[in-house]
Amino acid sequence: MVGCLREVRRDYLGTISRAAREVGGLARIVAGPPGWRVVLYSVASPSLAAEVLGQPDRFRKQAPGYRELRQALGDNLLTSEDEVWHRQRRFLAPLFTRRRILTDYAPVMVGEAERLVARLRVAAAAGTILDAYALMVEVASRISGRILLGTDITPAVGLLQRFRTINDQLLGRAVSPHPVPARIPTPANRRLSRGLGEVRRIVDDLITDRRANDPSSVGTDLLSLLLRAHDAANPADRLSDTEIRDQATLFLLAGHDTTAVTLACTLVHLALAPEWQRRVQDEIDAAVHDSSPTATDLDRLPWLGRVVHEAMRLSPAAHGIARSTRDDQVLGGYRIPARSWVEVSPWGVHHSPAVWPEPGRFDPRRFDVGPGELPGGHRYAWIPFGTGPRACVGMQIGLLEVQLVIAAVLQHFTITTPLTALPVHAAITLVPTGALPVRFQPR
Ligand code: HEM
C-alpha cells in the first residue's frame, strides 16, 4: 500500500485500519518519496501476530520505536533482548506475582478510587463537566506513583507530567525516516533531552534518598523491592543503581500512560452506551451493595470485565507493537527482507472486519462466550497486552486497576458526554485528540 508520509503520520491509525481492510492480515506500507521513505509491514491477523510475537529470535526489538525508547530511557525490561532480558525478567518477575498484586497494590487502587469518588461528588454538585483524560491521568499517576514509591508521591507527579511531551516526541522520531540525531541541538531535541534529564535526576534523587534514609527498607513499594531485588539463581547478583533507575522510570512510563488512556477511553465508551452503564451498575448494586468494590468482588462482576475487554478491543492503549528482522524472514508466505520494521497492530487486529464483525460497534456481548468458545473466534483476536514471552508483565495490574476504578465510578455516578465518538490518535501509545468532556451525575 503506497501513501504519502505526511498522511501516514497524520492519520497513522486510519492507515493501519485501511491496510487491514483493503490488503488483509499482512500489508506492506510504503510512504514517502525515495530517499525519504518509510516502509513498514503491518500485521493485523491474529495468527500472524502470534507468530511474530511468539518468536523473539526471528522478530527482534530493534524497530524505530524501541530504538527511540532505548536511547531515551536506557535498556529496560521492555527494550532489552536475549540474556540481558532473561536476567532482568528473573529479577523483576517476583514484583508482579498475583499475591503481591492482591495484597500490596490492590488496596492502593481501592483507596485512590475512593479519593476519586469524593472528588467527583464535589464536581457533580457544581455541575462541572470534566476532561476524562486529565482526570484519569491524575488517578493513574497517583496509583503508579504510590505502587512505585509508597506513600510519598509528590516527586512522581512532576515526573509523570514530563512524560506527556516525551511520549509524543518519541513517536514523531520513530515515524521519521531520518530523525535528527539526538546530539544535534534542534529545539525539539533540546526539549526532549531536557525532559529526559529531569526525569533521570528525579529518579536518581529518589534512589539516593531511599538508600540514605532507609537502607534496610522493608517497604513493599516497587522501589524498595527493586533495591532489594536479587537473582534467585545467583543471590550475590544485584541491580546497579543505573539499572534500578531505568526500570523504575519504565514502570512509571509503561504503567501510568497505558492505564490512564484505557480508563479514559472506557469512560467515554460507557458514556456513549447508557444501556451498558445500567447493566454494570445493576451488577455492582447486587454484588457489592454500598461498600467499595475490591479485587475479591470482581468474580461476581462479569459484565464489568466484558465492558473493559470491549473498551480495550476498540481502544488498545498500546496500538502497535514494533519488531524488526535481522535476517530475511518468511511470514504468511511473503518474504520480509532483513532489517525491516514489522508492526504487530493490536489496533489493526481489533478493528479488522475479518476478525470482529462490525468492528466499530461497542458490544461487550462479544466477550460473553460459552465454554470452549473464544471471543473473536481466535485465541489471539484480543491482544492489547501483546502475547508470547514478551507479553505485558503488568497485565494483571492494569486490568485490576481499570476494573476497580470504573466500578467505583459507576457505583456512584451515571456518566454522559456531549461527544458522539471517541477522538484518538497515535503517539507511542494511543492518546485522545483533545479533551474528553464527561459529566458525572450522582445516582
Ligand atoms: C492497560 C494497561 C497496559 C497495557 C495496554 C500494556 C500493554 C503492553 C504491551 C502490548 C506490551 C508488549 C510489548 C512488546 O511485546 O513489545 C507490554 C509490555 C510490558 N509492560 Fe505493559 N501494559 C499495560 C500496563 C502495564 C503496567 C501497569 C506495567 C508496570 C507496572 C507494565 C509494564 C510492562 C513491561 C515491563 C513490559 C515488558 C515486558 C517484557 O518484555 O518482559 N505494563 N505492555
Helix-strand blueprint:
Layout: E1 2-3, H1 5-10, H2 12-22, E2 26-31, E3 38-43, H3 46-53, E4 59-60, H4 64-73, H5 82-92, H6 98-125, E5 129-131, H7 132-149, H8 154-174, H9 187-213, H10 222-228, E6 230-231, E7 234-238, H11 241-271, H12 274-288, H13 302-314, E8 321-325, E9 329-331, E10 334-336, E11 341-344, H14 346-350, H15 395-412, E12 413-416, E13 424-426, E14 430-432, E15 437-442
Parallel strand pairs: 1-2, 3-11
Antiparallel strand pairs: 2-3, 4-8, 5-15, 6-7, 8-11, 9-10, 12-15, 13-14
Give the key terms.
single chain; 443 residues; alpha+beta; Cytochrome p450; 6-stranded mixed beta sheet; 3-stranded antiparallel beta sheet; 15 strands; 13% strand; globular
Structure in words:
The structure is a single chain. The chain is of the alpha+beta class and 443 residues long. It has one domain (2-442): Orthogonal Bundle (Cytochrome p450). It is 52% helix and 13% strand. The chain has 15 helices and 15 strands. The protein has helices at 5-10, 12-22, 46-53, 64-73, 82-92, 98-125, 132-149, 154-174, 187-213, 222-228, 241-271, 274-288, 302-314, 346-350, 395-412, and strands at residues 2-3, 26-31, 38-43, 59-60, 129-131, 230-231, 234-238, 321-325, 329-331, 334-336, 341-344, 413-416, 424-426, 430-432, 437-442. The strands form 5 sheets. A 6-stranded mixed sheet has the order 1-2-3-11-8-4, sandwiched between helices. A 3-stranded antiparallel sheet has the order 5-15-12. The protein has a two-stranded antiparallel sheet with strand order 6-7. A hairpin with a 3-residue loop joins strand 13 and strand 14. Helix 7 (132-149) packs across helix 8 (154-174). The termini are far apart. The mean pLDDT is 89.
